[in-house]
Write a structure and sequence with these properties.
It is built from six helices and 14 strands. With 242 residues, it is of the alpha+beta class. It has two domains: 108 residues, no CATH class; 129 residues, no CATH class. The strands form six sheets. It has a four-stranded antiparallel β-sheet with strand order 1-6-4-5, with no helix packed on it. Strands 2-3 form a two-stranded antiparallel ribbon. Helix 2 runs antiparallel to helix 4 and helix 3 runs antiparallel to helix 4. It is elongated, with a radius of gyration of 32 Å.
Amino acid sequence: MKKFIVDRIEIKETETGQKYIDIYDANNKNWYEEQKDFKAGTLKVMYNKDTRLVLSKNKDISMLAPTMVGDVVEEIESDDIFINPYQHFVDGKLVELQTYEKIENGKVVFNREKRIEELKKKLYDLRIEYSEHPFEVEIDGQKYLQNNRDLDQSNLTRIVVMCQALKKTTFENWKFYTKENSEKYVNLTIQDMMKMANIMQEQTTKSMAAETFLTHRLENLTDEELKKYNAKEEYEKAYKNM
């Protein structure tokens, strides 16, 4: 099967002053002259030599214009003439890269870097989710649901400092939720607030430790382990063991 690789481009001018592009390969063969050696019924694929990305394809060789150094035109037996912006040409075949695949040295390989970065993002999101998990707290024998949000944690710290400065022992109307998700306003003692603050801090510490532990392990996993890695399952196990 015929293949032409663009090695250099020359701008030339006709006797009438009209400029045109002349295209040559490394053996000084001219593209326009070489077109006749491509077979009539084959599919001609134009792709970039380095990225292997398909730029164009047609059974009519005259419809292709390899005008950049590194452009390659190669013919294959195929009827796949449809435009596909994600198609690559590897080992004489038209392929579409799957998730976490890339082209390296003309071969399709697993893209470890992309997969690891994606998993790091998932682990970070899980860290945020777990650090803000609602938790149950018991006040005067009654259990309430506390939404552990950054704003609540910040407010709690501010309120404790304010109460200590004003020598107050309680804070009125802190909003909780019941199991039925209805709002409930409760008066809190300093001890109640400190207990809640400790729970929030423990959640934050555990969630960060789980993320750090798992993130550091990613680089040591094999390609197959990375492909199958379930970030949520791994995070849940690590969080429970922290």
